């Protein structure tokens, strides 16, 4: 288990709350019939879309305010924008999530839904049915193999999140087949897309690899894909404004080859026929041509 003194205060608070909720426990065990995450990614690729897991995240400890939109409407907008899968926060104290919201979202869409929470004990797996659950290697430590097995016994697909080579090795040793590399350091909360680039070459080809955190533009999407990402998990960049338009800008990053996530005030009402039109601001330098020091972003945003 991670030494909590090495974690940022916001992360320590999240982890403490997760342990408190784990102590409450549940007696009934879920039995999940999951939607296939890898197949959803393959369908997106076949359709010319970058596989994006779009995240319904009402708030976070350092976000100004809370987005009050109906989460089901947000989720439906993300799917309409081309999201291959969704991520729904169920952490209540710091992110404003709930298992009830996840249940409503999963009932409303036909794509796989990841439960985004901070699971540290087997009892937490039974809180709600989802298609995928998250296990953060740094939080669960030596319990990872047992939690991975317990999740699979219930029918869950499992996304194991890592931050470095050591955690990657632990995830692979535990038998993880879907791995996310989080670009946000949990000690300083600094985002560096180079984290994914340093870890990705060591991930076996048969493992489904997801880039997490710090992906805010089509240029970031192309950079992570070039580094080996099979899919990307994106929250804040999609939640900030028109979720359908923001999702579409990212899922079409490779098809369109440019552009940016639209500002909420500049989003047009045009539908699919407008997707192939070249935005007026495409004459500006591409995101992946920005100076190298822009790749490291000092931020107080919380993990993924």
Q: Oligomeric state of the chains?
A: single chain
Poorly predicted runs: 264-303
What count of structural domains? Answer: 1
- Strand composition percent: 5-15%
User: Would you count the extended β strands for me?
Assistant: 10
Largest sheet: 8 strands, parallel, barrel
Strand order of the largest sheet: 1-2-3-4-5-6-8-9
Proportion of helical residues: 25-40%
CATH topology assignment = TIM Barrel
Q: Based on CA inertia axes, which overall geometry fits?
A: globular
Number of helices: 13
Question: What's the N-to-C terminus distance?
Answer: 19 Å
- The CATH superfamily appears as Aldolase class I
Structural class: alpha/beta
* Overall mean pLDDT: 84
Give me the CATH architecture, please.
Alpha-Beta Barrel
* Structural Rg: 18 Å
CATH top-level class: Alpha Beta
SSE topology string: HHEHEHHEEHHEHEEHEHEHHHE
Quick description:
The chain has 304 residues and is of the alpha/beta class.
Protein model, in words:
With 304 residues, the protein is an alpha/beta fold. An 8-stranded parallel beta barrel has the order 1-2-3-4-5-6-8-9, surrounded by 7 helices. Strands 7-10 form a two-stranded antiparallel sheet. α3 packs across α5, α3 packs parallel to α12 and α7 packs across α8. Mean pLDDT is 84; it is low at 264-303. α3 (71-80) links the parallel β1 and β2. 35% of the residues lie in helices and 15% in strands. The protein has helices spanning 9-24, 37-46, 71-80, 92-95, 99-108, 137-140, 144-153, 165-174, 194-199, 218-226, 236-239, 243-251, 253-256; strands at residues 52-56, 85-89, 113-116, 132-136, 157-162, 178-182, 190-192, 208-212, 231-234, 296-298. It is globular.
């Amino acid at each position: 288990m991670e030494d909590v003194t090495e974690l940022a205060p916001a992360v320590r608070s999240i982890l403490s709350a997760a342990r408190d909720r784990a102590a409450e426990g549940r007696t009934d065990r879920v039995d999940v019939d999951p939607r296939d995450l890898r197949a959803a990614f393959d369908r997106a690729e076949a359709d010319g879309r970058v596989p994006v897991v779009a995240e319904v995240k009402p708030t976070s400890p350092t976000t100004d305010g809370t987005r009050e939109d109906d989460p089901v409407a947000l989720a439906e907008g993300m799917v309409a924008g081309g999201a291959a899968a969704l991520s729904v926060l169920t952490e209540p104290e710091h992110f404003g999530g709930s298992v009830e919201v996840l249940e409503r979202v999963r009932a409303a869409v036909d794509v796989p839904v990841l439960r985004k929470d901070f699971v540290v004990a087997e009892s937490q797996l039974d809180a709600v049915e989802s298609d995928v659950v998250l296990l953060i290697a740094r939080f669960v430590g030596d319990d990872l193999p047992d939690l991975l097995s317990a999740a699979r016994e219930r029918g869950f697909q499992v996304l194991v999140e890592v931050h470095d080579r050591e955690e990657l090795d632990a995830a692979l040793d535990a038998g993880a087949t879907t791995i996310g590399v989080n670009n946000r350091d949990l000690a300083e909360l600094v985002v560096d897309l180079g984290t994914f680039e340093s870890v990705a070459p060591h991930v076996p080809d048969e493992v489904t690899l997801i880039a997490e955190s710090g992906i805010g533009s089509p240029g970031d999407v192309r950079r992570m894909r070039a580094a080996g990402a099979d899919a990307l998990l994106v929250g804040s960049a999609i939640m900030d404004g028109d979720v359908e338009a923001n999702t579409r800008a990212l899922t079409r990053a490779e098809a369109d080859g440019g552009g940016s996530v639209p500002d909420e005030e500049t989003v047009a009402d045009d539908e699919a026929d407008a997707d192939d039109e070249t935005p007026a601001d495409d004459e500006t330098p591409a995101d992946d041509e920005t100076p190298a020091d822009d790749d490291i972003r000092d931020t107080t945003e919380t993990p993924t």
